[in-house]
User: Fold this.
Amino acid sequence: MTAFPERILMGPGPSTVPQRILRALGAPTLGHLDPRYIEIMDETCVKLREVFMTENRLTFPVSATGMAGMECVVTNLMEPGDEAIVCINGVFGARMAEVMERAGVVVHRLEVAWGEIFTDEQIAEEVQRQPKAKVLTIVHAETSTGAHQPLEGISKIVHDEGIMLVVDAVTSLGGHPVKVDEWNIDAIFSGTQKCLSCPPGLSPVSFSPAAIDVIESRKTKPQSWYFDVTMLKDYYSGKGKRAYHHTAPVNMIYALREALEIVLEEGLEARWERHAHLHRRLRAGLESLGLSYIPEHSLHTLNCVRIPDGADDGSVRARLLDTYGIEIGAGLGPFAGKAWRIGLMGHSATQANVDLVLAALVDCLE
Amino acid sequence: MTAFPERILMGPGPSTVPQRILRALGAPTLGHLDPRYIEIMDETCVKLREVFMTENRLTFPVSATGMAGMECVVTNLMEPGDEAIVCINGVFGARMAEVMERAGVVVHRLEVAWGEIFTDEQIAEEVQRQPKAKVLTIVHAETSTGAHQPLEGISKIVHDEGIMLVVDAVTSLGGHPVKVDEWNIDAIFSGTQKCLSCPPGLSPVSFSPAAIDVIESRKTKPQSWYFDVTMLKDYYSGKGKRAYHHTAPVNMIYALREALEIVLEEGLEARWERHAHLHRRLRAGLESLGLSYIPEHSLHTLNCVRIPDGADDGSVRARLLDTYGIEIGAGLGPFAGKAWRIGLMGHSATQANVDLVLAALVDCLE
Assistant:
């Protein structure tokens, strides 16, 4: 077997995966129609509903990494010629516009500067300007900037106009509150490799009953067969026949089940508070080193700071990796070479890691 | 951790995964841009080229299960309005037609009965009838029927007419010869969970230089962002910058790397011969029990036999599973309730398993 270096993953994901999840991942592969596997899948979906805080029947992990969840949501909810308001304040809002356009959707871009968030007033104005919009999409946790977008006010505004709310929660689920039912979210997607600390490879999604109504009244078939939930929903909902659609990624489901179990053992509230507390500790330390945060409303789970004058981006990150085994993230897009992204996600969010990365930065910035 | 029953996987996939691969799967998760991970990915692609018997630069595992490979090939090669000849002799040919139509392709269906294969003459006639066809797609190993389609003659016929050849090798790669360069295949996809005995979750694909030319001269963007190889090929080819596209399924890549290593240690020729030899042993045993094969040209890797009169499909399979821990496959489509599919793939293809499944069938059919 090949050699693996020891790493502490404090970038934008994956986060460090606990041994318990790695052991679950390496359990014997069962057939995807084996009665015991079906039970494990059902258990996984039940736990996923708890973590998403939803009763949505159609809540399951898409069999591919995080961006596939975005594509699954778009492919199923939207038909060619439909209109969407896409809120863009970083890479992942822009990505959504791109995925929408490939699906033939007329995209209305609502943009604010990278690192900023949207106000209720901006959303209310745009919703008025676009009376034909079917959905509004917004990024709850923008991984490219660390901005943390409040959703409750926005949800009321869009639903008052009969528009559905689609949320990208890739970097928040399991680290920040994500209250799908309370916030009335119609479709949401996340990833396993961020605050759930499961290896990358699955994308949890959830669709509201209203979203399912829209999907069931489509005039056209979704352009993707692989992501078509009309063929998957019986498999994952526990209703009807467990017909074969595609071979499920069996071992990744074992790992996700274990990861969700760990989240629920800790408790959602306690887990959010751990991330909040360690973010405050990290932030105080970074600011005392003269590193300033880019977003005014920062995520706890991803800390995006300006690279100080005189520091060389690549050599600092290389030294962190080589000397300390610590991975942090580079800036993306306009922040390339200008920002670092320090993740505090799931199993990586410990006081030991916070104190170590601060000590390592002191050393590397000398 | 949850309890797992012991299974011997002799269905249509997944096959039994060796401990060595499960251990590789459970190795520590690295970041997808970690220099060591990039090396592991490069090693994986090098080995994949060896197993596909190709020099194709664009040879990599799609980050999703087997059917995603089909969708990746269609999405990249085809544009709306393009024409395709789709050869259908089972579920997976029909699936290809469906995926093509969702991509806006004009599909010319060439059908023979389930379980039969296509003759060179049938292909030659159809190619003459469809002068505007851009590709011809065919299933090398039809998992729903066990039919084994020869490809060399067909490849010459389609290329003589300037048509590209697309091959579904999900159930043959690693069990039967799949000679991508020698057979002049333009695009091919497979799965990890069949004759490679890796868990499900990835879909190896390979595109010829001619296919890349077609992709690079597209007039429209592929409808899928997730499967768009124009954004992936720098990442996987070792050329250019390793830009972020999506988070790779890191641990699944570890497992695939190990699975390919095992294939190459055994040697392709020896592996094909093992599958051939054990197929003959199984076939002799099944036929002596009065079980007849459905396809005249049977795969070695999947053995599709008629359920004998008087035997109850569900109760025999349940007894095999409960008493012997053996999973075999049910029939699909018109063969539901009429056929069993017994897989001899990769790690499951042993003399012990052949003799055990025969003994177990004797017991269950009494």
Chain B touches chain A through 67 residues (CB under 8 Å). Chain B has two domains: 8-13+268-365, 19-264.
